[in-house]
Amino acid sequence: MTHGEELVLRTLVFQFDGRVVEVFGAQNYDAVRYHVALMKEPCIGEPNRNGRSQVTIGSASFSIGADEMELLKPLLARVTDAIRATRD
Questions:
Q1: CB-based contacts of 75: which residues, under 8 Å, 6+ apart?
Q2: 68: Cα within 13 Å, side-chain hemisphere
């Protein structure tokens, strides 16, 4: 992917170009790639007692702390908007 945005967290990297989202570091540190036209909307679980939330993007699932969640939420919102736009 080129000309997209990239978000680097402690153990995860996300890239999104408006159509394709890539997640690096989730589940066995594999990279996964999804086109928004073929995805369900990302899912964010409620924070546990340690403040960590389970996040699912496509088949990638990972736990993320509250501090990183604030950085990730805007990207997840853009991915969700792109998914919804493919269904209109």
A1: 5, 7, 14, 16
A2: 19
DSSP three-state, residue 19: coil
Neighbours of 15 (CB within 10 A): 19
Nearby residues of 7 by Cβ (< 8 Å), 6 or more positions away: 13, 14, 15, 71, 72, 75
CATH of domain 5-87: 2.30.29.30
Tell me the per-residue pLDDT of 38-62, one tens digit each, with 9 for 90 and over: 999 999 999 999 999 999 998 889 9
Secondary structure class of 44 (helix, strand, coil): strand
Domains in the chain: boundaries: 5-87
